[in-house]
Amino acid sequence: MITESSIKFNREKLGKTIEVGNASPHIERVLAIAQEACIDPRTADQKTTKKGFLVYPLDKKRYEQRANGNDFFITFSEEGRVKGFLMCYDRSFLQNLISEGEIGHEDGIISYLTKNTEPEDNFLYGDQIGISAENRTREAGTILMEKVFAKMKDRSMRNMYVAILHGPIRNEASINFVGRLGFENITEVTNSDGLVWGIYHADISKE
Ligand SMILES: CC(C)(COP(=O)(O)OP(=O)(O)OC[C@H]1O[C@@H](n2cnc3c(N)ncnc32)[C@H](O)[C@@H]1OP(=O)(O)O)[C@@H](O)C(=O)NCCC(=O)NCCS
């Protein structure tokens, strides 16, 4: 069934009925996709992580909390099966997570964003994206990002930031993925856990 908030695509490459909608009803699948993609970058090697990876795992309750009242946490489904998700926060949602002590590891990233953005800039922070392993490089990730760009435009939001691991290993799949969407690496930060992150920015009004 297509919900009101969903949009329907018919991309040739996918060739099936696909939907993008709010993540709230699909948290079990989000959790499964995230767990499949999660690795420990201190022990993983660059060769076995070529298809990308996630670093900071969340539990079911936290995904539920981050979907609640958040229009920027969406899923991608094909023929009724959820195959990917994109979890972002606008400035006020992120601020609430920070005040509630919910942003645990990302201190370097958050500090950069709070110091280097204007208070009136309602930017979007892209926290996690995951496509189930067998569905990667089929444009699901791009479709999710395009949906978020459309939502940003509806709200006159222009700046989006994402953080991608640079060290001890680099998430090359993700770096290529965001590069193709117009993101540029603006700086590197180190979180207190010692992991080094590239901060990437896109001004979507320039498209
Ligand atoms: C990174 C990820 C979100 C991309 O989504 P996707 O649906 O696979 O990507 P799309 O099909 O929309 O886009 C493909 C583009 O992404 C990049 N890309 C995706 N996988 C890649 C890989 N294994 N190696 C190099 N580039 C890759 C390329 O730029 C590619 O374009 P190209 O084919 O023209 O080179 C997905 O592969 C994924 O979930 N990986 C595991 C989790 C992850 O890394 N999340 C990001 C954490 S910051």
List keywords for this structure.
alpha+beta, Acyl_CoA_acyltransferase, 6 helices, single chain, acyltransferase activity, transferring groups other than amino-acyl groups, binds coenzyme A, 207 residues, Aminopeptidase, 8 strands, N-acetyltransferase domain-containing protein, GNAT_dom, 8-stranded mixed β-sheet
Task: List the topology elements.
Layout: E1 7-9, E2 18-22, H1 27-37, H2 60-67, E3 73-78, E4 81-90, H3 91-99, H4 107-116, E5 124-131, H5 140-154, E6 159-167, H6 172-180, E7 184-190, E8 196-203
Parallel strand pairs: 5-6
Antiparallel strand pairs: 1-2, 2-3, 3-4, 4-5, 6-8, 7-8
Helix pairs in contact: 1-2
Bound molecules: coenzyme A.
InterPro entries: Acyl_CoA_acyltransferase, GNAT_dom
Organism: Candidatus Falkowbacteria bacterium RIFOXYA2_FULL_38_12
Protein name: N-acetyltransferase domain-containing protein
Question: Would you mind describing this structure in some detail?
Answer:
With 207 residues, this protein is α+β, with helices and mostly antiparallel strands. It has one domain: Gcn5-related N-acetyltransferase (GNAT) (Aminopeptidase). The protein contains 6 helices and 8 strands; from the N terminus they run E-E-H-H-E-E-H-H-E-H-E-H-E-E. An 8-stranded mixed beta sheet has the order 1-2-3-4-5-6-8-7. Helix 1 crosses helix 2. The N terminus is likely disordered. Pfam families: Acetyltransf_1. InterPro entries: Acyl_CoA_acyltransferase (IPR016181), GNAT_dom (IPR000182). GO terms for molecular function: acyltransferase activity, transferring groups other than amino-acyl groups.
